[in-house]
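FORM 7B - TANDEM STRUCTURE REPORT

SECTION 1: FIRST PROTEIN
SEQUENCE AND TOKENS:
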Amino acid sequence: MDKLSAKEKYELKKSEKLERKKEKDGTEKTNGHGKKFLWAFILVALVILLYLGLKSIVKNNTPQGNDFSRSVPSAGRGHISVGAVLPEGTYSSNPPSSGPHYPSTARGGFYDIGEIVEDQFVVHNLEHGDIWIAYHPGISKEVKNILENFGGRYVLVSPREKNESDIFLVAWQRIDGFSQEELTKERVKDFILRYDNKGPEQVRGGGGHQAGIAN
């Protein structure tokens, strides 16, 4: 290199400098592409996770099975005094899903065997859009434990001697009765999803409150 002229040395250094610049630019370009790919991958992953999350929410809030319930004609909405004697045939279903009821509602939640709740209190709950799960005291402990998990502020679970089936799911003018052997969590969840907060007297607004459906 000592034999090179000053001009040749200058040109050589210039060439080496250009090569280093090309290498640097290439590295930065490669790194830039890598970062863009990484961000694109993260964005796609987030979109997929968001889609799966929304899909899960929609699924959990959409009835998945058949509707086994039946519509019941209205028996009215009038208030009666506590303890009033009603004539035979006052209600259009057993348990009642509409009709004369007491001025106050019953507490939501689970009632164990021996804790009696009069129908006329619960009918008022139904008018407000609550769900009533009426079970016969003769059901098994295992089935009773399953039903207990559905009890909540807007879902009343109570024993009822007058039941003609082991279990009744009741909403305003809607009823589904079946044996304890036919009980599935999905059947109860679907009923709640379909008919919760559908009473004629809206006291909770229009959003609904599917108490117990996560069980």
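SECTION 2: SECOND PROTEIN
SEQUENCE AND TOKENS:
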Amino acid sequence: MLGRGLRLLTVLADHPAGLGVSAAARAAALPVSSAHRLLGRLAAERFVAYDEDTRRYALGARVLELSRGFQRSPAGYSAAAAPMRRLADRTGLPAIAGILYDTDVLLVLTAQGTQHLQLRSAEGTRNAWHATSLGKVLVAGLPERERDELLAAELAAVTDRTVTDPAAVRRELDAVRERGWAEVDEENEVGVRSIAVAVPSPHGEAPRLAVSLGAAVALTGADELRAHVPALRACAEDIAAHMDH
């Protein structure tokens, strides 16, 4: 029963506007009667919310409470908040932290800068790894077998500038491993470029967290953004030091 309930929560997380019982059951591969019963129990505990007007279920307040608790836990990423705030203040650009989640990058923390951008960067947002600087720098640090598995999956175009050829992406990952940072130019969002570095992990393990800076193409040139790599690296080192304690 627990697994079925978690499947329903995962389905609702992918549909922020909510789903009716039948649609949720279909997406979770559950009988409608089972989905209805489970959603009722989840609603009673505030893990989901039911809108009587639309007759749809969506994630509830308890999920947000769990998320906040996770970020405050040793396994969470609240340790990155202060270094990212300083980075955003220093550069004037939004700082974004993310982790790999299946074939996506899950954004876990943001700090707004003075340069106003309408980014798809809300915490909890998932973006295709191959279209983001966060994803590329994290995948570049993975063992070869795991990189190969991700490259073997479909690399769909997010914009008309997204690199989707596996061989080209592999070459780019090799370059990222060599220089220690990744960049994208309008591959995930038109009019936006970004640059990212991985947060060092202890004992030489593959990095599990990365931090990036985003900028409007019209306001910040590629070379100007690359000039922030030392500040990004300092932020990543600061985060690593805080997460080790």
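SECTION 3: OBSERVATIONS ON SECOND PROTEIN
Residues 74-243 form a domain with the Beta-Lactamase fold (CATH 3.30.450.40).
The longest strand covers residues 104-111.

SECTION 4: SIGNATURE
Preparer initials: ____
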